[in-house]
Amino acid sequence: MPPLERDSRGVLVSNTSPASKFVVLVPDDNVDLTPTNIRGVWVGIGGDLAIVGLNDVTPITLQGIPTGALLPIMVKKILATGTSAAGLVGFT
């Protein structure tokens, strides 16, 4: 069972709890995402998404992601090079 933590309001949360914070994601080839606990990516406008997984060092491109897709992925970087999808929102 994953460890439980409390959010800023004192509510118990875990990595299996529904998302409670959302952040606009801007692709960047050099900078890791912040916050680092992103566990889902909403794709507002479909296309390709070049990512580096949370525990990876090698990028991979997810091709042909449809508009409105919610990807249950944990990523540390979304690369500008190779990403044509837009309207990206991180779920934490």
Q: If you had to describe this structure to a student in words, what would you say it looks like?
A:
- The chain is mainly beta and 92 residues long.
- It is built from no helices and nine strands.
- A hairpin with a 6-residue loop joins strand 5 (47-53) and strand 6 (60-65).
- The model has no long low-confidence stretch (mean pLDDT 89).
What is the string of SSEs from the N terminus onward? EEEEEEEEE
**Can you count the helices?**
0
Kindly give the count of domains: 1
Strand order of the largest sheet: 3-9-4-7
Query: Percent of residues in helical segments?
Result: under 10%
The total of beta strands comes to 9
Tertiary shape:
globular
What is the SS-derived class?
A: mainly beta
Average of pLDDT: 89
- Based on CA atoms alone, the radius of gyration comes out at 14 Å
Unreliable stretches (pLDDT < 50, length at least 5) are: none
- Biggest sheet record: 4 strands, antiparallel
Intertermini distance: 19 Å
Residues in β-strands, percent = 35-45%
In short:
The chain has 92 residues and is mainly beta. It has no helices and nine strands.
How are the secondary structure elements laid out?
Blueprint: E1 5-6, E2 12-13, E3 22-24, E4 40-45, E5 47-53, E6 60-65, E7 69-71, E8 75-79, E9 86-91
Defining traits:
single chain, 92 residues, 4-stranded antiparallel beta sheet, 3-stranded antiparallel beta sheet
